[in-house]
Write a structure and sequence with these properties.
By secondary structure, the chain is of the alpha/beta class. The chain has a single domain, classed as Alpha/Beta hydrolase fold, catalytic domain (Rossmann fold, 3-Layer(aba) Sandwich). Strands 1-3-2-4-5-8-9 form a 7-stranded mixed β-sheet, with helices on both faces. Strand 2, helix 1 and strand 3 form a beta-alpha-beta unit. It is globular. About 40% of the residues are buried. The mean pLDDT is about 95.
Length: about 270
């Protein structure tokens, strides 16, 4: 996994591995969000490591380049994301007897896809990207096809700060084709969840009641599909006391949010 971090990857964009030097009872894989990097999960990774976990935070495909204005993200594919998730899971199984998989936003989508398709002890999708807030699910497939039909373009996360946006270990903009590829994976996940039960032994689906970017209705729909197939596997947790926001993970964006969120997330991961 570490060898995938080629010479265009920045020092703060590389795969993070916190291991105890031997196989442990539990290991964890943490998937970062779109245009972010493994550093997004560094504090949570250390928190789990202190509890005895071997932890890996893989760099997702086309992410983590030293050039923050890199256009590599535009060539990210859903198949690349699935392959990265499976290879990370193979490493985690070698590092721990029982595996927990978690992720935020795009990483939350990967954690949910893993929960549906792979036998892991625990999966914790956090604010998973299953659709765009305020976009009805019935329009999602049409918008995805349209985005892939037209040429790719980049949008600033913050049109005021633009390239000055923090943190420096992430990209300040996102590619429309990358977003559409994530939506393809989301559609695939919903089809699989409608066809059969999730394979994860336990799932903790985490949302923010005052979500600003991803579609909480889609998260509730996925939860309903999972509950219909394997009700004993699913738990949900919703943050109800946070400000309107999507990024509840990155301390450089909202340190006041992280102070509330991190202890709870670590407990949910380690439950």
């Amino acid at each position: 996994m570490l060898e995938r971090d080629h010479d265009r990857v920045g020092e703060t964009g590389r795969t993070l591995a916190l291991v105890h030097g031997a196989r442990t009872a539990r290991s964890a894989v943490l998937f970062h969000g779109l245009s972010a990097s493994p550093m997004q999960f560094v504090q949570i990774a250390h928190g789990l490591h202190e509890r005895g976990y071997n932890v890996i935070v893989p760099r997702l495909p086309r992410h983590g380049h030293a050039d923050r204005m890199s256009t590599a993200q535009a060539t990210m594919r859903a198949e690349d994301l699935k392959a990265a998730a499976l290879s990370s899971l193979d490493v985690a199984r070698g590092l721990g007897e029982r595996v927990t998989v978690a992720g935020f936003s795009l990483g939350g989508l990967l954690a949910a896809w893993t929960a549906q398709t792979q036998d892991v002890e625990r999966a914790v999708p956090i604010a998973p990207f299953l659709g765009i807030a305020f976009v009805p699910s019935r329009l999602s497939a049409q918008l995805t096809r349209a985005a892939l039909h037209f040429p790719n373009f980049f949008n600033w996360w913050d049109p005021v700060l633009r390239e000055r946006q923090l943190p420096v270990h992430g990209y300040p903009r996102y590619a429309t084709h990358a977003l559409a590829q994530a939506m393809l994976l989301s559609h695939e996940l919903f089809e699989a969840a409608a066809d059969g039960p999730p394979k994860a032994q336990k799932i903790m689906l985490v949302t923010n009641a005052r979500e600003a970017a991803v579609n909480n209705r889609a998260a509730r729909k996925l939860a309903a599909l999972w509950r219909a197939k394997r009700p004993e596997a699913l738990e949900t947790y919703e943050f109800t006391d946070l400000p309107i926001s999507h990024d509840i993970i990155e301390p450089l964006h909202h340190p006041e949010i992280v102070e509330k969120v991190y202890p709870i997330l670590i407990e949910l991961l380690d439950r």
